[in-house]
Specification:
Residues about 25-50 and about 180-195 have low confidence and may be disordered. Strands 8-11-14-17-20-23-26-29 form an 8-stranded parallel sheet. An 8-stranded parallel sheet has the order 9-12-15-18-21-24-27-30. It has a 7-stranded parallel sheet with strand order 10-13-16-19-22-25-28. It has about 475 residues and is α/β, with parallel strands linked by helices. Helix 1 packs antiparallel against helix 3 (about 70-80) and helix 4 packs across helix 5 (about 155-170). It is built from 11 helices and 32 strands.
């Protein structure tokens, strides 16, 4: 049995190729785990990668593995197609103890040759991690035959899965088959479905402005639902209410420039999500928020608002400038807010405990649990339990309390420090957040280039602060 997936990489080609070739020689495992992100969801954690070992490497349409990265880039130059995604990183993971290295690699090479070998340059590497053999595929995003881009449509992904299943059968391996009777083996069906391709709808590189003129509330520029969608490199502004409504699971919102929204509403958010325990695994990263302010209606507006016990979101690497409130986490659980820069904001981040405010709020928390059980009855089993462990026992774990939130490695300048409810402190991680008083900590503060100066105050206080790709934010093409 083999599980497959493939996703785009925007960074440097050589990093992912070097990892595929020599995982055991790559020491920066935390940064390397980004190469395993499927639109924001990590395939496996950095600490698990410490046992990653190379078995075999084969190249298609390349001279050698040593020159693969250079050949990828040379193809882009020759074909005059150097922008956008640099490559695609895929994997094919086999059931433990079902294959050896030779068989796994043979299947991987056959899969790559059939799917991409006639048009694209490919590196195929077989690794072993904690007893599991799996193949990594690094596919050039530009064809060396016709110069066209590979976009990985849903049809492409289905074909990848179908060819992989056929090859597994030819080698005598097990394949997940569709059950013959409705209701049979429910847990296995759920696990299988959760590993299927994400929707992979992409909203990228747009300017969206001056919208919601007739229906002003909850008419956002972008409304996300479903699983595994991407909103990237857009500029959104001049609107009475939200820029983005965020729902579903495992969606990614990144590299957007969002400013001057929530102009005619209050108690709102430029990016807003709320009212459910089921919205798990969403990521908001590397966005720039500006001028999200309180208006005449009086209540606070937030750049990011995780309302009414919304849980399990990651908010990191964002820049919040001149906002009334950078982020409000309204009583939810297992959210993470880290590695953000907050400048000239009245409030940085607030984590409240609204589930404890009254009996009616406590009842609201129980209603969230009931809705979760009705909509997603498998929330506490299989891959849901594996990916969202804090969710599996939420009903017995005081759902009204804002447990397991993390707020760390954030930088505040001329902004109020975090405001964290006592109950969130008791079960969460609140640490290494710093307040600065000298704008020289940033590269060019007066021109709003809020990049921390190397060896400056930010890195002196937070040595593991991760660079924010400031130059990539917003519409770039």
């Amino acid at each position: 049995m083999a599980v497959t997936s493939i996703w785009p990489i925007k960074g440097r080609v050589d990093k992912v190729i070097n990892y595929a070739r020599n995982p055991e020689k790559t020491h920066d495992k935390e940064k390397l785990s980004e190469l395993h992100e499927i639109e924001g969801v990590v395939e496996y954690a950095a600490d698990e990668m410490k046992t990653e070992k190379r078995a075999y490497v084969t190249c298609l349409n390349l001279h050698s593995e040593e020159t693969a990265a250079q050949e990828f880039m040379e193809t882009k130059r020759l074909m005059h197609n150097e922008g956008g995604r640099s490559c695609y990183h895929g994997y094919q993971s086999f059931k433990a103890d079902e294959v050896d290295a030779d068989t796994a690699h043979s299947i991987g090479v056959a899969l790559a040759r059939e799917l991409w070998g006639d048009r694209f340059q490919v590196v195929i590497a077989t690794h072993c991690n904690t007893g599991h053999y799996h193949n990594h595929f690094v596919v050039n995003s530009v064809s060396d035959v016709d110069g066209k881009k590979f976009y990985n449509s849903p049809a492409d992904y289905r074909r990848m899965r179908e060819v992989s299943d056929r090859l597994c059968r030819e080698y005598g391996l097990s394949v997940i088959e569709k059950p013959k009777e409705k209701g049979e083996k429910v847990t296995e069906i759920i696990n299988y479905l959760m590993q299927q391709p994400y929707a992979n709808n992409i909203i990228e590189n747009n300017i969206i402005k001056s919208y919601a003129k007739v229906y002003k509330c909850y008419t956002p520029a972008i409304n996300i639902n479903g699983v595994g969608n991407v909103v990237s490199e857009n500029e959104i502004y001049d609107a009475p209410h939200n820029a983005i409504l965020l729902g579903g699971q495992m969606n990614l919102v990144e590299l957007n420039y969002i400013h001057d929204v929530c102009l005619e509403t209050s108690d709102s958010g430029a990016i807003y999500a709320g009212g459910t325990f089921s919205g798990q695994g969403n990521v908001i990263r590397y966005n720039y928020f500006e001028n999200i302010l309180r208006n005449a209606l009086g209540y606070v507006n937030n750049a990011v608002y995780l309302d009414n016990m919304y849980s399990s979101a990651k908010v990191y690497g964002n820049i919040f400038y001149s906002c009334e409130s950078a982020a409000l986490l309204g009583g939810g659980r297992a959210n993470e807010f880290y590695n953000n820069i907050v400048i000239d904001c009245a409030n940085s981040i607030t984590v409240d405990a609204r589930g404890t405010w009254s009996d009616s709020w406590k009842e609201t928390a129980q209603n969230r649990v009931n809705s979760l059980k009705n909509e997603f009855p498998y929330y506490n089993q299989g891959i849901w339990k594996e990916k969202f462990p804090h969710l599996s026992n939420v009903e017995e774990d005081e759902p009204e309390l804002p447990k397991y939130n993390k707020v760390y490695n954030n930088v505040y300048y001329n902004s109020k420090a975090e405001n964290i409810a006592d109950s969130a402190y008791l079960s969460g991680t609140i640490k290494k957040n710093i307040s600065l008083t000298d704008k020289k900590a940033f590269f060019d503060f007066d021109n709003k280039i809020f990049v921390p100066v190397k060896d400056g105050e930010v890195y002196q206080n937070i040595p593991d602060f991760v660079d924010i790709p400031f130059e990539l934010i917003g519409k770039t093409k």
